[in-house]
Amino acid sequence: MRLLAFCEAPADFRLTAGLVDRVLREQGPSWVVDNFDMPEVIRVWHPDPSGRAYFDLHTLNEYMDRLSVPTTRGYFNDRPGGAGSSMVRKALRIVRALSKRQPDESIDAVVLVWDMDQQPDGRRAGVALARDEARGWAAFQVVCGFQDPEREAWVLAGYDPCDEAERALLAELHDALDFSPVVHAARLRDKSAGAARNIKRVLGRLTRDDPDREERCWTDPPLATLRERGGESGLADFLDEIEHILLPLLDPRVSHQARA
Fold first, then answer.
1. Is the pLDDT score of 174 beyond 90?
2. Each residue of 213-228: pLDDT tens digit?
3. What is the pLDDT of residue 254?
4. 3-state DSSP call for residue 58?
5. Exposed/middle/buried for 1, CB within 10 Å: 0-12, 13-18, 19+?
6. Is residue 149 within 8 Å of 119, Cβ to Cβ?
7. 30: Cα separation from own chain's centroid
8. Alpha-carbon dihedral angle through residues 257, 246, 238, 112, given to the nearest 10 degrees
9. N or C: at which end does the chain have fewer Cβ atoms within 10 angstroms?
10. What are the extents of the domains in the chain?
11. Strand 44-45 versus strand 2-7 pairing type
12. DSSP state of 257
């Protein structure tokens, strides 16, 4: 299965790829589970033209110029676009252009992950318009992840203290915030650096800004825990999209029905 990711930064791709692998490895058909010691047999991430493992959402115009993708404007299935509609339209047309240029390396699915910042409802609706439009012509599937408000919310959902020092630190932050930053990470929306409810500050304190400690937040807890804690931040929905859209590509006999 050939996948292509659109993200905003290397840390976003690292998290995205890790979550995709976990769902494939733990919920996929038996042949996937049995062969995941060689993940490249199961899935390959299509690199961008510079060799980066993902396509950067900030440089879509550069990709379009490089691939001679024409700019498309106008409505989306007779509806005006919303926040992010044009961006996602560009991204998906870039993928179509790549597939035409490299038919032997056609893309099976696009995984697009985007921070919601301060406009979660608008961005989700805008992305939905562009994805619905693409269903009329795309030969690939599209998985969307909405990090609300930012990547750090998904990481916090998997934070479990591993020693007394971490348990004390989490308790201290819980008391200061008056809510659990692990269960309610989506409430950490203050953009001011150093603010009590700045999500980067909170995650940095809990993990001591250690990337390996961060990674354990999405590799160690059960997927059920990530789903339970990630309802507000969009993580649960993303895990469901991986399950319902990507798993059938590995085993068409399996039909994954969306949860209510």
1. yes
2. 999 999 999 999 999 9
3. 59
4. helix
5. middle
6. no
7. 25
8. -140
9. C
10. 1-148+234-260, 151-229
11. parallel
12. P
Query: In degrees rounded to 5, what are phi and psi of residue 143?
Result: -110, 130
pLDDT of amino acid 75:
83
Domain 1-148+234-260 class, CATH top level: alpha beta
**pLDDT tens digits for 19-58?**
999 999 999 999 998 888 888 889 999 999 999 999 999 9
Q: What average pLDDT does the segment 157-174 reach?
A: 97
Confidence (pTM): 0.93
Q: How far apart are CA 214 and CA 159, in angstroms?
A: 8
DSSP bridge partners of 111: 5, 143
Residue listed under structure tokens 């992840």: 145
Tokens 């950067």, located at residue: 56
H or E segment to which residue 4 belongs:
strand 2-7
pLDDT tens digit string along 105-115? 889 999 999 99
Paired strand residues for 49: none
DSSP assignment of 212-245, as one string?
HHHHHHHHSS-HHHHHHHTTTTTHHHHHHHIIII
- Tokens for 86? 């044009």
Which ranges of 28-163 would DSSP assign to H, the alpha helix? 30-34, 39-42, 60-67, 85-101, 120-134, 151-156
The β-bridge partners of 3 are 45, 109
Q: Residues near 20 by Cβ (< 8 Å), separated by ≥ 6? A: 3, 43, 111, 242, 246
Identify whether the C-beta of residue 143 lies closer than 8 Å to the C-beta of residue 245.
yes
pLDDT of residue 104: 81
pLDDT above 80: residue 253: no
- Which letter, b or e, does each residue of 32-63 get, where b requires 16 or more Cβ atoms within 10 Å of its Cβ? beeebeebeebbebbebeeeeebbbbeebeeb
